[in-house]
Write a structure and sequence with these properties.
Blueprint (H helix, E strand, L loop, with lengths): L2 H20 L13 E10 L4 E3 L7 E8 L2 E5 L2 E2 L6 E3 L9 E3 L8 E9 L2 E20 L3 E4 L4 E10 L3 E8 L7 E5 L2 E4 L8 E8 L6 E18 L2 E2 L6 E10 L3 E6 L2 E2 L7 E6 L2 E6 L8 E9 L2 E10 L19 H12 L3
Parallel strand pairs: 1-9, 10-16, 17-24
Antiparallel strand pairs: 2-7, 3-4, 3-8, 4-5, 6-7, 8-9, 9-11, 11-14, 12-13, 12-15, 15-16, 16-18, 18-22, 19-20, 19-23, 21-22, 23-24
């Protein structure tokens, strides 16, 4: 190794000891009486760059930067092994360093120690690292039955501690959202179909743009028939009866005339179901087609029905078409429907 190798390590140790004893004031240790000691805070976002500035006068004889008790730079000589820490080429009266890609472990006190006219002076800088808010855990999309209790969760981290705001966007198609509550949890008691939709969790600590994630809540509810109108169609014409039902999951439809179930076939009618709607089409209306039809809508949550009257010209006085006619098929038919439907599940 040679004689020189034996003196390298002791020499550096002596330099460190000399720097500390002569003029360096370790972070957290109060300045000695008569020392010039100033403090400053620098706030940097995680991933950004921090510039630590230190003013010096032309009579300075020794200068160094320390992080706690670790020497980063002594004069222009770099002691730190961290490539992110660099000495800035500034004016003669400034001795500043830059820390790139700042992370949490960089937070803490830094000391610029100066020996001028054999008098130690120190400037202390406290580096504060802020971390943007980030949502780290959120409830998964859920499907529940109407009337159930629901708890939604949204957890976030960041420095300073982030706040959490919940908003609700209804599934009714309205694009606006409304404020719901603050905090990590949302408690919904006896949820209704109007409370289905998208729940938006927004976490922010104003370090950067808010972090936003969503939870989709689907609420199952029984069919509600919203459209079932009587229809006037002349003999020999084509016509259609329409029935529309809101339901989650989507309703299955069946059509009856009196107590007889209608099927697609050679009897001149066609049943077509599309989403929320069911259409009963007539290719060539006859006298026998006139009368009362029942649209039945059902899903796993329940069953409902509405009565629709198909009538011809001159039959207005015979049928009260303006009345809200709605009734179930016969009791036995209804029980058969319910039993047959739920046996499928």
């Amino acid at each position: 190794m040679g004689i020189y190798s034996y003196f390298v390590l002791p020499w550096k140790c002596l330099v460190v000891i000399s720097l500390r004893l002569l003029f360096l004031v370790p972070a957290g240790v109060p300045a000695r009486s008569g020392d010039s000691f100033s403090k400053d805070n620098i706030t940097v976002r995680q991933g950004g760059s921090a510039v630590l500035r230190c003013s010096v006068d032309p009579k300075v004889s020794r200068v160094a930067w320390l992080n706690r008790t670790t020497i980063l730079f002594a004069g222009e000589e770099k002691w730190s092994l961290d490539p992110r820490v660099i000495l800035l080429d500034t004016v003669q009266t400034e001795y500043s360093i830059k820390i790139e890609n700042v992370d949490l472990q960089d937070e803490g006190p830094y000391v610029c120690s100066i020996l001028s006219d054999k008098l130690p002076k120190s400037t202390k800088v406290h580096l504060i690292v802020q971390v943007p808010a980030k949502i780290v855990n959120i409830s998964t999309d859920i499907t529940v039955n109407e009337g159930s209790n629901v708890t939604l969760m949204c957890l976030a981290i960041g420095r300073p501690d982030p706040s959490i705001i919940w908003k609700h966007r209804s599934s009714s198609g309205v694009p606006t959202s409304r404020f719901l509550t603050e905090g990590e949890y949302v408690e919904i008691t006896a949820i209704t179909k109007e409370q289905s939709g998208v729940y938006e969790c927004m976490s922010t600590n104003y370090v950067s743009a808010p972090d936003v994630k969503i939870v989709r809540v689907t609420v199952n509810y029984p069919p509600v028939i919203s459209r079932a109108r009587n229809s006037l169609i002349g003999v020999g014409q084509r016509g259609m009866l329409q029935c529309e039902a809101s339901a989650v999951p989507l309703a299955d439809f069946e059509w009856y005339k009196e107590d007889r179930k209608l099927l697609n076939g050679p009897n001149g009618v066609k049943i077509e179901n599309k989403g929320k709607q069911s259409m009963l089409s007539f290719f060539n209306v006859s006298e026998e087609d006139y009368g009362n039809y029942t649209c039945v809508a059902m899903n796993i949550m329940g069953i409902t029905n509405a009565s629709i009257i198909l009538y011809g010209p001159g039959m207005r006085d015979m049928i009260d078409i303006n009345s809200a006619v709605s009734h179930l098929p016969s009791y036995l038919l209804l029980m058969t429907l319910v039993t047959a439907y739920f046996l499928k599940f």
